[in-house]
Amino acid sequence: MSTAETLFTRTDPTLGAFSIRPLDPFSDAELLHAWVTHPKAAFWMMQDATLPDVEREYVRITAHEHHQAFLGFHEDRPAFLMESYDPARLELVGLYDAQPGDVGMHFLVAPTDTPLPGFTRAVITTVMAALFADPATTRVVVEPDVRNTAVHALNEAVGFVAEGPVTKPEKEALLSFCTRAQFEAATALTTGVSI
After folding, report:
1. How far apart are CA 48 and CA 187, in angstroms?
2. Helices marked H in 95-172 — which ranges?
3. In 10 A of CB 74, how many CB atoms?
C-alpha cells in the first residue's frame, strides 16, 4: 500500500497500525467478494453475489456523490471494509430527522481463521476516528439489523446510543447515534492521526 493513497492512520495501543485508503472497485473486487460472501458476513446481505456483482456494486458506490467506500488495513494487510454515506440522502431518507453533520457508516471485518482478541473493537474505533477526523462530522448514524447483537454491543462500546427500530425495505434496523463527545468519552481516544 503506498502512503500517497492513505487517508487515515491510527496506532492501536495493543494491536498496532491501522490505516484506510479509498477502495478501488476493480482491483479490490476479488478480495471483497471473498469477504462479503463468507458465512460470517450474513448481515452484509451479499451472500449469493458473484464477483461481477460485487464489482458492479462498488463501482456504483465509489461513483456516488453521497456514498464512499474504503479499504482498511492492519499492519499493511487488508483487514476491513468501511463505507460512509449521507443518511439524509441514502439509506435513512424519511426514517429519522437528519441533522447537519450526520454521517452514516457501515463496516465489515475480514473473515479469519486466527482471530485476534479485541480486533473488531479496534477496527470500529479506527473507523469512527477516521469519520470524526473530518471536522464537519458531528454525529455518526448506523442502522444494523436488529438481530445483529454482536454489532450492537460493539456500537455501544464506542459510544453509540440506540434510538430504536426502523423498518427499511431490506431489514428491520436498530437506528443508533454517536456524537463526537460520546465517542471520545467511550474510547478516550488519543492516537488517531489524519494525514
Report:
1. 36
2. 119-132, 149-157
3. 21
The Cα–Cα gap between 171 and 85 comes to 18
Q: For residue 93, what are the contacts with CB-CB under 8 A and spacing of at least 6?
A: 87
Residue with cell 430527522: 97
pLDDT along the chain (195 residues), means of 10: 76 95 95 93 87 94 95 97 96 94 97 91 97 97 95 95 94 96 83 41
Return the C-alpha cell found at 162.
440506540
- How many Cα atoms within 13 Å fall on the side-chain side of residue 188? 1
**pTM: predicted TM-score of the whole model, two decimal places:** 0.92
- Alpha carbon distances (Å) from 95 to 32, 143, 147, 149, 173: 29, 11, 19, 21, 11
Per DSSP, the three-state class of 12 is strand
Q: What is residue 43's predicted lDDT score, i.e. its pLDDT? A: 82
Task: Report whether 58 contacts 31 (CB < 8 A).
Answer: no
